Amino acid sequence: MTIIYTQEDDYQHQVAKQIRLNQQHLESLTHPGSKITFPIDQPIPRPIPGEKIFYFDIDNCLYKSSTKIHDLMQVSIEQYFQNKLNLSPMEARKLNHTYYKEYGLAIRGLVMYHGVNALEYNSLVDDSLPLQDILKPDLKLRSMLIKLRQTGKFDKLWLFTNAYKTHAMRVIRLLGLGDLFDGLTYCDYNQIDTLICKPDMKAFERAKLQSGLDNYKDAWFIDDSGSNIAMGLKLGMQHCIHVVEVKESKMHEILGQSPNGSQVIQFVTDLPDIISDLLE
Questions:
Q1: H-helix or E-strand containing 13?
Q2: Distance between CA atoms of 276 and 280, rounded to whole angstroms?
Q3: What's the confidence (pLDDT) of residue 195?
Q4: Does pTM surpass 0.70?
Q5: Quick one: 36 and 106 in the same domain?
């Protein structure tokens, strides 16, 4: 008996194989920070006046944008469009761009107009990325975060991402940072009808609520998106840091483009350069 695979069958098979490899690799990790030690989806805490929280974006912030993971993700998204919606490469690229521009995340448009299951999409797109071929433990970043915690000047270090939690946790584990944060605010694909993401003000309100922040003035925030930084400043975050990976010779151009009131660094590991007083 001959089994005939459709194009979608072959796509599903290849993606499923890669997801298994990704999971096997993740389960084999033993380096420091390779396990998540903070609770995910923890109960909402009671805000404590004066408590200081440092919010960290993940993608293109805790790792360099030059890793090109964003480009790899776009390829994965467009493959999904081609195989699940039966589109040509050009049609897939155009629709992906349209939905990203209109809704901030392609998945929102897919759910609204194509009845796509958001969690299946996350699995086939984000969870299928071979991140272990790109991301390795970042000892310099780990050392910096440990020192930041040890100063006692921040009550919590909190992750704040537009990704779903499975992707967020995988990145943190691969980088060796799973034991250095207190919590995670992510885009919940289980609630796709009310999906919110940065720079929507409601996303910041969710992070504020989930982390137990009492007042935005007590928050520090680092992100690679100028729009996200601008919203943080608008809400009253007095310490917003824009990560922009450019050549040193072009940094002056970026300084003029970043939101007024923000500080600009090239890499997250440059953070000590602008908060040296906090690390003493």
A1: helix 7-28
A2: 7
A3: 79
A4: yes
A5: no
Q: Which range marks the domain in which residue 89 is found? A: 1-30+69-133
Domain shared by 153 and 225, yes or no: yes
Give the Å distances, CA to CA, from 55 to 70, 203, 257.
Answer: 21, 13, 22
Q: Which residue has the tokens 């098979």?
A: 13
Is the Cα dihedral 200, 231, 259, 213 positive or negative? Answer: negative
Q: Is 24 exposed, middle or buried (0-12, 13-18, 19+ CB in 10 A)?
A: exposed
CATH code at position 22:
1.10.150.450
Look up residue 168 and give its two tokens: 């967020």
Mean pLDDT of the chain: 91
Q: Which residues pair with residue 56 across a beta bridge?
A: 159, 222
Per-residue pLDDT tens for 74-133?
Answer: 999 999 999 999 999 999 999 999 998 888 788 888 988 998 899 999 999 999 999 999
Q: Tell me which of 113, 133, 153 is where a domain ends.
A: 133
CA distances for 32 relative to 55, 63, 64, 120, angstroms: 22, 17, 20, 31
If asked whether residues 55 and 5 sit together in one domain, one would say: no
> For the chain, what is the domain count?
2
CATH number at residue 267: 3.40.50.1000
Q: Determine how many CB atoms are found less than 10 A away from the CB of residue 28.
A: 9
